[in-house]
Protein: Kinesin motor domain-containing protein
Amino acid sequence: MVKQTIQIFARLKPTKKPTAVYSVDSEEQTGASLEFVVPRDLADGFVNNKRECYQFRFQKVFDQSVKQEEIFENIAKPVADSVLAGFNGTIFAYGQTGSGKTFTITGGAERYSDRGIIPRILSYLYERFSQDSSMVYTTHISYLEIYNEMGYDLLDSRHEASRLEDLQKVMIMEDPDQNIHLRNLSLQQTANEEEALNFLFLGDTNRMIAETPMNQASTRSHCIFTVYLCRREPGSATLRRSKLHLVDLAGSDRVSKTGLNGQLLTEAKYINLSLHYLEQVIIALSEKNRSHIPYRNSMLTSVLRDSLGGNCMTTMIATMAVDKRNLDESISTCRFAQRVALIKNEAILNEELDPALLIARLKREIQSLKEELAMVTGEQRDDKLTVEESQKLEEQVRAFLDDPDTDVTLSLGPDMRKIHYCFSMLKKMFLDKQSRASKCSDAQESPAATVSEDGRTAEVSKLKEMLTQRDNEISILVKMLKKEKKRAQDATAQLANITSDQSLDSQNALRLSTMPLLTEGSTETTSTSQGRAIQYMKQGLQLTMGKQEAFQTFIRDHEDYLTIEDNKNLLKQRSAEAKTLGAQLNEARNRINELKKQLEMRRRQKAAHGVMRNHTESEEEVDPLEENLCKHIEQEKSAYKSTIGRLKALRTEIEHLQLLLERAKVKLQRDFHKWWNEEACSVQNCESEATARCHTGSPSETLQPSSPGTPGFGEPDLSSTVREYPAGRDPSPDCSTSSVQELRRFIPKSTPPLTAVPAWHDKSLDGTVTDLTPSFGWRALSSTKLTPSSIPLTGDQKADADILAFVNARQNLLNRTGPPQQ
Ligand SMILES: Nc1ncnc2c1ncn2[C@@H]1O[C@H](COP(=O)(O)OP(=O)(O)OP(=O)(O)O)[C@@H](O)[C@H]1O
Structure:
C-alpha cells in the first residue's frame, strides 16, 4: 500500500497579453511556489485588497514556456508507471475556461508536438507493453462525458448522429462493497496504440461543444478518459488490474463573471454545482475526523470516488491564465489546489487471482497428489467407490452398530471417500429412524383414536347427571331406613305397653277395620297418566337397584297395599275354586258319557232280544235299568249345568279381580313416581338450603325437615301421632299427600267400603264411579264444619276417640290459622 497525498502541479498558459506580477520559485527537493503580487489599485471585488502577495505551493510549477513533452515526463509518466505496476492512477486538470486544461490533457490539434497527456500515455503504455514480453497486458478504454449531471458514452457510435438527449444515459451502480459500476458505458478493448488513439479521436469528436462568450473552444462538460489495464504473467493465476483516469474538468469560472444567460446559464450552474460538490468532497477529505464524505452528491464525485481519498495515486494539474484580468480566477484555482494537496490517498496493489487459472492449477495439483497417494498406498483410486467397496462398508457399519461394546471402533483407513460414505450411511439410518418414530406418534394421535372434545363434554355431563340421581336415591333410601327404624322402635314400644290380649285384639281390630280398601275412585286416572304409568311399569326393569328397593318399601307403606294383597289372595282362592270346578265338570262329563254308553248298550241288548221275541211286545215293556240310567244322566246333566254356571260366575269374578289388580298396580306406580320426584326435589332443596346456610354463615349446619306442605320423611308420622298424642293436640298442620294417606288408614269411609267380593257385582265394574272417600280428603277436613254425627266412626271405642280428637284438633288449628295452602 502506498500512502500519498494528491500531487498538485501548476501550469501557466502562455500569453502575449500583459500579465499579472507573479513569480515561480522552483526548488528541487521541497517543490515549487507560485507567487502573485497584486497592486492595491488593482485589487477589487473578490481579491482581498489588504493583501498584495499570494503564494501557493505546488509539487512543480510549469511556466508558460513549458512544452507538452515536459508535462508528460514530469506529471504523466510517473502516474503511468504506477498504473503499469498495478496501482490506480488519476490525473485531472482544473482551471478556468480557456486556461489550457484540454490542451494539457488531450493536446492541441495543430502540431504533433502539442499532443497532450492522453495520447502520450497511450503511446508510452504500448511502448512499455512491447518492451516487457514477460507479461501479458490487456487494455480497455472508456470515455465518459458528464454534462448537466448526466453521463454519456463518448465512444458510442451513435453519438455523432444523435442529439445528446437522445443518447443512452450512463447510470451509476454501486455494489455492496460500495464499488462504483457504470452501466451503459462501453469498454473498448484496444490491442495497440493506433486503436486506442482512434477511440480517443472518436470521443473527442463526439464531445459536446458549445460556444460561450468567454471562450469559443471551451467545453462545459467533464470528460473522463479511462484506460483499464490488466497485467498477467503467462502461466500465473495472479492478475494485476489497474485503471487510469485522465480527467478534463469543465471550466471553474464563476457564473457572475461569465455573464451567461438562458441555456448557458443553466449549464454554468450545473458545472459550478458539480464543481461545488467536488470542492465539498475535497474539503471534507482535507479535514480531519470527517467520517462522511459526500461523494454521492454528484456524478463526477461518484465516478472519481477512488481517485479522491481512496485507492489511487492522484495528480492534479491546476491550469491558469496569468493575464491580469484572470488573476482572481488563477488565485482561486491555486486556493482550490492547496486544499486538494491535503487529501491523502491509500493506493494498494490491485492483485487478484484468476478463477479459471486457479481452478486449472488446483486440478493439476489434485492430480499430482493422487498420483503420489497411489504410489504410497499402492492402489489406484477413482473418484467413486466401487460396488464391492460400498457393500463392504455397509457390512462394516452394521457390525459396528450391532456390537454392544461401546468402545468398538470403525476402522476405515485414511480414505476420505470411505469416511464420507459411512457418515452419509449413518445419517440416512438416523433420518429413517426419526421418520418412523414420527409416523408412530402420528398414528397414536390419529383422529380415529381421539375422542372429540364435544363427546367428552357430553359424557361428563351424563355421568354427572347419573351421579346426582344416585345421590338422590341414596338420600331417599337413608331417610326411608330411618323411618323404618323409627317405626320398628315405635312398634316395640307399643308392644311393651300392651298389657292385655284384649287391647292387642282391639289394636288388631282397629288396624283391620281401618284398612283402606281399593275403591274404584282410588283407581281414577286419566288415560294419559295411566298410559304413562303402564309405560313406567314396563320400564320397571330399568329402575336402579336403589329405586327398586325404595319401590318395594313404598308398596308396603301404600294405602292400597292390604287391599291389593287381599284381592291377590282372593284371586288365588277364586282361581283355585275355578280349577276345582273345572275338574268337577270334567268328572261330570265323563260320568255322563259313561252313563250314555251304558244306556246305549242296554238299548242294544233290548233291541237284540226284541228281534228274537215279539217286537211290539217288547216295545211296551218298561226296562227299570234303562229308566234308572236315564234318570242318572239327567241328574248328572243338571249338576253339570250348575257347575258350569258357577264356573262362569267365578271366571267373571276372576277377570274383575285381575282388572282391579291391574288398576291398583297402575295407581301404585303413579303414586310412587310422584312420591319419588317429590322426595328427590326435597333432597335437592335441603342440600341447596344447607349450601346457602354455609354460604351465609348460618350457625346451624343441620339438615332441617321439609317445610309444611312438602312431603318428606323428616316430618312427624301422622299415623303414629294420632295414636300417641292426646285428643285436641294436633301435631302438625301437614297437608301432604302422605299425611292424608296415613289419615285414611285410621278413618273409615263415609260409605261402606267396597269389599272385593261384593264389588264385582257392583256397577263400579265399569270404572265410572268416582272416589267414594272425598269427604275425608284434606279439603273436606279443612273446609267443612264436621260434627261427631257426620263423622263415620269405626265402632271401636278407642279408635273412634282418636279420630274425633284429631278432627277437633285440626279444626281448632284451622280456626286460628286459616286453611293451609294446597
Ligand atoms: N500551454 C499552451 N501552449 C499553447 N497553447 C495553449 C496552451 N494552453 C492553452 N493553449 C491554447 O489555448 C486555447 C484554450 O485552451 P483549452 O481549450 O485547452 O482551454 P480549456 O481550459 O480546456 O478551456 P475549457 O474550459 O473551455 O475547456 C486553445 O486554443 C489552446 O490551444
Observations:
- The pocket of adenosine-5'-triphosphate is lined by residues 13-14, 95, 97-103, 108, 215, 217-219, 251, 319 (CB under 6 Å).
- The chain has two domains: 2-353, 469-817.
- Residues 209-218, 499-542, 697-788 have pLDDT under 50 and may be disordered.
- The two ends are 117 Å apart (CA to CA).
